[in-house]
Request: fold
Amino acid sequence: MSPLTGSGEVPSQSQRAILREFEYLPYRGPRSPSWVKAWVILRAAFLRDTANWLVRIALVASAFYPLLGAIVLVALRGLVGHLPNFVDEGRLSRHVLHFVLDANVIFAFLVTLGSGAMAIADDMSHRAFVLYFSKPLAPIHYMIGRVGALFLLIFGFSVAAGGFVLMVDVATSPPHARLEEVLLFFHVVFHSLLLAFVFSSSSIAISSLSSSRALGVVTWLIVWIVPLLAVALADSYSGGSFPWFRLFSLFFLFDAVTSGLLGLGAEARVSWFFALVVLIFLGGLCFHLTHLRVASMVRRLK
Reply:
């Protein structure tokens, strides 16, 4: 029976035209700007990242070490000049800030372990990957949103930690030295930008290698822990005779950059500028490779 005539008659030409109106027609209306698409993914990814239990633990714990650094800074200011061979007051704040920025690297790793290392695999397991690319979405928009969520998360707590210590430092430092201490905030911002860029792009690059969340986490653990232990063992057995070996560890690369930014470069065993170039190259390479990987997966979906 025909759905239009109510009988077994064959539909006429005009009735067939009505039937064709019920078929799928491509949308030809106005489309949202590209930044809106990236923003939607960024917002969804940020909410999912902050809901992870390991990320929440890391964020809560990251509120304590800046407080510890500030307490140590105030306590040590009272010891300057009273203990032999003690660090001079002009470099005291830089040593404490060095400790806080190094701690930021560790907590950035914990955040990416809980979220970044399983980001793309998580989207695929929740079928969000298919949902995103069922719409006219370019892989670069997805990458900006996914990496941007982790970037903002890491950058936020890193700047907050360093800024809090500097605020206490400026309040307790002599008046003639306060301007110099305030300018250290620009070093903190640069360090936080670099930290957020490298860790967000590299951890998500790891997550794009497999659709298994567990495999992404294990791979990111290996990438972080194995070079760190190898450098520690090499230093202990060789007495630091192979400083270039530190270039294989993310932690020691950032430690060298931190020392250079704070004027403590003489204490680093590798050139802080060379370490900076390696980190920027690594972050850019990981972002590019992940973009290629996402683009290939999108082609397979189509």
